[in-house]
Amino acid sequence: MRRYFGRKLLVYALTFVVAVTVNWMIPRFMPGDPVAGMLARAGVSQPAAVEAMRVYYTNLFGLDRPLWQQYASFWGTLLRGDFGISIWLFPTPVSTVILRAVPYTLGLMVPAVLLSWVAGNRLGAFAARRRLLDNTVLPLGYVLTATPYMWLAVILAWGLGVVAGWFPVAGGYSFSLQPSFTAGFLLDLLHHWVLPFLSLFLVALGGWAIGMRNMIIYELESDYASYLAALGAPARLIRRYAFRNAVLPQITGLALQLGVLVAGALVTEIVFSYPGLGSLILKAIQNQDFFLLQGTFMFIVIGVLVANFVIDLVYVVVDPRTRAGMAGARG
Amino acid sequence: MTAAPTETRPEPRVVRREALHFAVRNGKLVTGFAVVLVLLLTGLLGPLLLGSAPPNEYVAAPMLPPSAEHWFGTTTFGQDVFTQFVHGLRTTFAVGALGGGIAALIAMVVGFTAGYRGGLPDEALTMLTNVILVIPTLAVLLVVNAYLGVRGVAVQGLFIGLTSWPWAARAIRAQTFSLRTRDFVDLARLSGLGTGRIIAREIAPNMSSYLFMTFILLFGGSVLIASSLDFIGLGPTEGVSLGLMLQNATQWSALQLGLWWWFVPPGAAITAVVGALYVANVGLDEVFNPKLRTT
In this complex, is the C-beta atom of B62 within 8 Å of any C-beta atom belonging to chain A? Predict the structure, then answer.
């Protein structure tokens, strides 16, 4: 088990280093001069102002020093939790802007991911080897999993929001309210949360259902299932054993899908102008706020790494073979 | 080759004919590929048949609902949605082919090398694969594309390909690993064939169906990632794509104005292409894997 965690942590540490390095490299090694680009987009015409901005940005990036010093100081500021100053919300620090948005993204993603995973697994396990259900769940699952997240969000916003008028289609809460811990505000928050949650939930559901269905069919054809059947065990018992075995690859699948799920949450937030990281990224891009964009990137990477580690912990609890130091741990 | 002894040579041909026999009778495969083919032809021929009108040209009154003249209606600016749609389809297929192709190529190089060589190269490549696997693809692409001033379809496809290969490399490595100790590979090694030729002539052909299915999934994944990027506003700076159409529709409040003909077709087309590919993939699996055949 120590070897299992040691290896995992090594991968995550390396991933973090790679992500930071990529984050450092992109502005410096992309074609074109980032400072010149920023100045051009700022649209300042007075030569004095342009010169002042050039000096400011060059100092900020530390572009006048040797590369290894730039790299070292990049790590230094990062480890101090300093992600720079947001240009869009000048002079708020990037970390403050991001921390304000993170609760909304987490509040949307965590329930959507967990519930779709649980419901998808149930649905898939239930549909496997039942002809009628299989013929409806499977095609529907493929359509859902092929749907772009933002398109389902747009369709839901249009159908249930604009046409039916049941749910608001923009924002995290009504503009007339101030965030507070009153029943009225929390209900309003929930009301705005339903549609983005639903669209995330539905797209993810399809993939889990298909995965589970295929795994259950595979498990039901294995030797232990046939043996149990030959012993006269009830079908329900066999299915329960099959489910327990089939859940393991689904946990691995959850870790592998995290990147896609984050991407889905980001575009869904943009559709609903939900005040999470997705809307932040949109604002950062529209305002050419590269510090904010890169800060958000680092936050997403850290979040995905933490989630991966949590999934590893869960895997050890669920699969006894990893505890005994035997095979069975995921890659 | 034709003069080769009959008891060894006909085998691949029989296998291929058998696969074809099941392929044309597999509903999933035929339907899936038919949908993709129809949309591909629309994307390839549509722009030619519609003449040289640029897709972003203002051609009619704004906000017209679908009619005989404008099949998918017009946008808030009086652009023809159908013209944008066919051009967008073309872009979508281009990004899918390019991104999926590059990713498949990298996955094959990494997977074959790691799986066949084993030892230290395997350790290093597996570590690299695992590291890149954990990094959220879209987040990297966001930063990269934000710094690119001028963005084209080719560059978009290239970067998608460069970031989306890891899971495929892992799958190919596992397959190669199980093939490399088979007798026919040992025989090839004993007869003095080089590593590259063994992989190209003994290992790859034995998993060609698997490789093709991996490419299909990578293609679908590229299409979805590209549409997300376009939607966030980091799509091609010139031209149209289905993701850009969705972005424009939401940005210019097509939802509030009730212009459903603007945002329904592009999303439906992406879903149709990717969904049809997934379904065709299941069909292919049934064709090549006798255990899964139900009929």
Answer: no
What pLDDT, on a 0 to 100 scale, did the predictor assign at position B257?
A: 84
Q: Which of residues 241-280 of B touch A (CB under 8 A)?
A: 243, 246, 249-250, 255-256, 258, 260, 263-264, 266-268, 270-275, 277-279
Residue count of chain B: 295
B28, B125, B134, best to mutate vs chain A, most A CBs in 10 Å: B134
Could you give the 3-state DSSP secondary structure of residue B252?
coil
Q: Walk me through the domains of chain A, giving residue ranges and CATH numbers.
A: 2-31+97-330 (1.10.3720.10), 32-82 (no CATH)
> CA–CA separation, A301 vs B137, rounded Å?
10
Contact (CB, 8 A) for B98 and B112: no
Amino acid at A33: D
Residue with tokens 């947001």: A86
CB atoms within 10 A of CB A51: 12
Nearest to B95 by CA among B34, B128, B141, B135: B141
CA neighbor of A263 nearest in space, from B250, B161, B218, B225? B225
Report d(CA A183, CA A196) in Å as an integer. Answer: 21
Cα–Cα separations (whole angstroms), residue B239 to A194, A270, B84, B236: 35, 22, 9, 7
Tens of pLDDT along A128-148?
Answer: 878 788 888 888 899 999 999
pLDDT tens figures, B119-176: 899 999 999 999 999 999 999 999 888 888 778 899 999 999 999 999 999 999 999 9
Residues B231, A294: C-beta atoms closer than 8 Å? no
Range 68-87 of B in CB contact (< 8 A) with A: none
- CATH for the B17-50+79-273 domain, from 1.10.760.10, 2.60.120.620, 1.10.3720.10, 1.10.287.3510: 1.10.3720.10
Cβ atoms of residues A258 and A112 within 8 Å: no
User: Exposed, middle or buried, B1 (CB in 10 Å: 0-12/13-18/19+)?
Assistant: exposed
The vertex-A185 CA angle with A180 and A187, nearest 5°, equals 145
Helical spans, DSSP H, in A147-234: 149-156, 183-220, 223-231
pTM of the model: 0.88
Mean pLDDT estimate for chain A: 86
